[in-house]
Amino acid sequence: MLRLIWRQLRGRAGRSVALLVGVLVATTGFVVLTGATTTSRLDVRGTVERNTEAAYDILVRPKGTRTPLEAERGLVRPNYLSGLFGGITTEQYEQVKTVNGIDVAAPIAMLGYSTTPVPTPLDLTDAVDRSLDRQVIRVDPTFVAERGLSSTAGKPRYVYVTKHPLIYPRLDAPFDSDAVPYSDGHSYPSTASCGPVPREVLPDGRRLPICDPRFALLGSPSTYSERAGWTVDAVRLLPDGRFESMPFVLATGPGGSPTTADRLRMAYDLTVPFLLAAVDPAAEERLVGLDGAVIAGRAIGSDDTAAVKRLGTSVNLAIPVLVTSRPFIDAALAARFTRLPEVSPAGVPIVDLEQKLGSATGTAAGSDRYDVSAGYRTKLAEGLSETGCCYGQLQVIVQSGDVQYERRPDGTLHARPQPPVGPTVYGDQTTSSPLPRPWLSEDQATRAVRRLALPDGGNAAQRYWRAVGVFDPDKLARFGGLGQVPLETYEAPTAQGADDESRAALGGQSLEPSGNPAGYLSAPPLLLTNLDSLPELLAGGTGPQVEAPISAIRVRVADVDGYSERSAERVRLIAEQIATRTGLDVDITLGSSAAPQTVELPAGSFGRPALRLTEHWSALGVASVITQAVDRKSVVLFFLVLVVCALFLGNAVSAAVRDRRPELAVLACLGWPVRRIGALILGEVAVLGLAAGVLSLALAVPAGIALGIDVDWRRALLAVPVALLLALAAGVAPALRAARAHPAAALRPVVAGARRVRRPRTLVGLAVTNLLRTPGRTLLGAGALAIGVAALTLVAAAAYAFRGAIVGSLLGDVVSLSVRGADTAAAVATVLLGAAAVADVLYLNIRDRAAELATLRAVGWTDAVLARLVGYEGLALGVAGAVTGAAVGLGGAAWMIGALPAALVLVATLVAMAGVLVTTVAALVPTILLRRLRTARLLAEE
């Protein structure tokens, strides 16, 4: 049998070589493509493992704090802690720490916003006319935030510049006494409407008070906006050109020794809310390296406690904190200056002062602008002291709620407006805080704001925070670019314009927090105290935060370094234990990634238009989704490539068997049994498959190197069994069909007569009739093309489903881009195999019908007409195969994805059109051979 097989292969060298090349191409393509897919899979896993290292692996929050978006889509908004105040008890925290396998459990207790004055001085030096004896510089302030989109004017403030001497009240001057001691050694009437204010000494000896309205305002300053306050500052222009003024002392008004300076700078403070949080210093150091980020002073320790000072019946409570080196706030103060010559407020009663100064006319004298960030840095430069930068009130602490969203049909999130913030939230008549409300508190709110319920009034402790050090958020532990998700505690949130209009409004820059607790973007915690200070700070409070002060616990699991299946399972088991012991909400953050979301922000009350923003949220479990999706995609691609290779070989073997029908019929007539004929065909196919496998073993590695694909030698060894199995699988059906065929039927002509004779009137009709006369051959040709179209559509669907599962996050987008090479290689190879099958079928069709074509030529048909006939047959065959393949491919895609995206319909349409074109071109190739047909010989054989 083996000798006969060898003779058959050698006797039909052309067909044997064609089959050998077919098996070789299919096997080599399969090995190389599986290598590309496996390499892509390993690259994806490596990318995921390298880019999923984050600060913590598990996030523990109070029960019921998951938002609908988190539950539905696994998304967590940036700075989720800014709206989360308390809910976890210290006992639950201790239960978390007892779970085995935890490297560090870092609690954080969000307390709220402490309003702090930040200096924004304005330089008026160039606005002063030094030739005038006295003048008033009117300062018209404009408060600016959010890249200048939100702005509003405030009441004018005034600086009185005189060359006359000024005398000032001493620091021991009583505010409401009938006689106030001054720096010249005399006592003057207090004038209840003004208080202890500077007095101007006129040339005639009169000493006129210069009233300052900051001492005449009734009620608590915290009930009105900072843009509603106005002041009058008195400055003396000395003969040497310098300026003399008295520093402002909060307790008693102006006092102390006068200071001189070369430049005239007006003191102007903006009320800025800073978010205060309490942490476990030791745990925070292990989590993010907090101690190493301290750049001034010292790190806060677990043993730092609130300092209590008793002054008679009053109690001062100082809370130790670390303050940030960066405020993360986009706000500024701008002002225009107007010079009012020969105008003096000296001696003018407070009730008439504003009208007199406001009605005076003058000339423009320049402008200035000062940012809150610059003012904060100036404050830091003053050093760590109670009279310097790091000192702020805690009488009023406000807390902001979560942003409420409405989902649009396109997936856009619309931030729902909230009711305006009441004026008493920042203080009222019973509040001892003297700071006015931030001007942005009157803006359109997107968060509800409430005051932390703490005791206040005459018997309550005077609470304030005192800095022990300054930390730089940029020096905290940093993590991978794709793993640095907005779940990081100290990352400042930003948002970019999502459309051209919003980007133009923002000037191409990002929207940053404005400092408004009711605003959309919230700054991270900027003041950090320790958990041991909470009992003193919350003493006497009535809210639930007193019993459960901790807002979240960030857990890092031991022996976990990036995402892997082992790490994921270890983290999952520990998360289950935490949830079981505490009953809290537990989320696995291992393998999370930033996920861009489109947010519609409604227009503000101070000019900011409605914006469409792109904001990076955190998508939980992205790494797990990616690795599962890449595994599924690899299996799908392996299967599709294998099926295409098997069908290609099956078509080639069927064509070879069909070409040998008369020979097989003769063998059957000579008495060969069915099994022997089948064994002969399978033996030939097996020998060709084995030879192709050995050749593929030698070609796979060089082909992979040429294509930039890593084909391992162990995978290349698979070429031999794969080629043998593919060849045998492809030859089984044709062998059985040939062995079972009746000898008489095998000897009849391939082209059978039509049952119903129809005379086509056109060449196109004749081409269609020819295809219908041989339905088996037509189905084989159309099926070959359908294989390529359907396979390519399915490959595109597999890639689409894979990318659809992971896109939407930064890590997913990077992985999606990295796998496109393997997807493209699989798709192109599939098309080439399908095109080769189509070409083979068309070639065999022309050979089988050579006598028929010779007859048509003998009766007068020209080669051009015959070429058109063959071309029309190829076109009809291509249309049938392409439409069928597209339909089958789209059906399989719909089953695979669960939907039928428009992108896949477009892909299938384009592939079908390309298939028709390729088939038409392939049909033209045999027409060239029409000229070589030997008409006389073919007719004689027929």
How would you briefly describe this protein structure?
The chain has 942 residues and is of the alpha+beta class. The chain has 23 helices and 36 strands.
Work out the helicity level.
Answer: 40-55%
Strand content: 15-25%
End-to-end separation: 33 Å
- DSSP strand count: 36
Low confidence ranges: 810-818
Largest sheet: 13 strands, mixed
Structural class: alpha+beta
Shape field = elongated
User: Based on the structure, what is the oligomeric state of the protein chains?
Assistant: single chain
Overview of this structure, please?
Helix 1 (2-11) crosses helix 13, helix 17 crosses helix 21 and helix 18 runs antiparallel to helix 19. The chain is 42% helix and 20% strand. By secondary structure, it is α+β, with helices and mostly antiparallel strands. A hairpin with a 5-residue loop joins strand 13 and strand 14 (243-245). It is elongated and about 145 Å long.
